[in-house]
Amino acid sequence: MTGHRDGVDDLAALTGPRSNRRVTMQQVAVEAGVSVSTVSKVINGRYGISVATAAHVSGVIERLGYETSLVARSLRNQRTNVVGVLVADFEPFSTEVLKGAADAIRGSGFELVAYSAGGRVDEHVGWERRYLSRLMGTLVDGAVLVTPTVTDVDSDGPVVAIDPHTGSTTIPTVTAHNLQGAHAGVRHLLDLGHTHIAMVTGRVDLISAQLREQGFRDALAEAGVPVDESLVVHGAFEADVAREAAYELLRRPDRPTAIFAASDQMALAVLEVARELDIDVPTDLSLVGFDNIPESALSEPPLTTVEQPIREMGRTAVALLIELIAGVEPTDLHRTLGTDLVLRRSTRAPGGIPS
After folding, report:
1. Residue 88 and residue 290: Cα distance in Å, rounded?
2. Rounded mean pLDDT of 168-175?
3. Which uninterrupted H or E stretch holds 113?
4. Strands of 188-265, DSSP E
């Protein structure tokens, strides 16, 4: 290197607006006019440099946008101070979970990264294991799994599951009162006078889907209404599958007067099909969903639904994960949050006035 001015020119060439290269510690040292070891001491908060020098170097770091490598940081400190949220795909439920995760991360000293399996769940069973093996210990200190496809994950750090898979597991979990919520949604339809009620079910491998179906069945049984098994149709928590279920139900000569869908995403798919078939909601068909995602209030008509606190679930899961990373032993490793029925304009008595 010929001198400081040349070094700055070289640095400008490397870090100007047209460059995508990562700023290095060496470049920070050149710009600040100090040694690489001095920059390292500032980054790691070590002693041996003056307050003025530390402030000067910190200003250069900020101006150049220098970031330490997560991998290098983990190798040096055995921690990354990053938590991951792993989702099957970015859809309304996982998006609300991520909002809650972002709430929990503020002021915690941790950073948050999100990873997606990027496709249909049935084509990616076990995706959590693959992601965890790549990320844990080098990129993240712990992870939240959203609607996982497995229970037997083995990782080098703590893991929390939101809306867990069926089967025994030692993974800490956060879920909602699915049984009570579904019961309340179907009870509402029964109270309106509906007895010919169908259900579009969720993923059979998730506890939440099983409990919502059980709530549907329990509510009918308590009302003395037999379950017509031909009206219980698989929807998989996916809009395209739910659309096929809706066509199957709504093209029947004895089509149901009401449908309970195990998620809002599926309920909104049913609403679209009803509109295509000129079936008016709620005049000809009452519809209840589950989740209360933001889209449910924006549909026409707005969707009556069971609200589970999705954002709070994300917040609770990340808060629990940070405790586990810190070595804290939480008093409750399996947390269940309440649900509420939200009445809107997609339900009414058969041939009667809106609810």
Report:
1. 19
2. 87
3. strand 111-116
4. 197-201, 232-234, 258-261
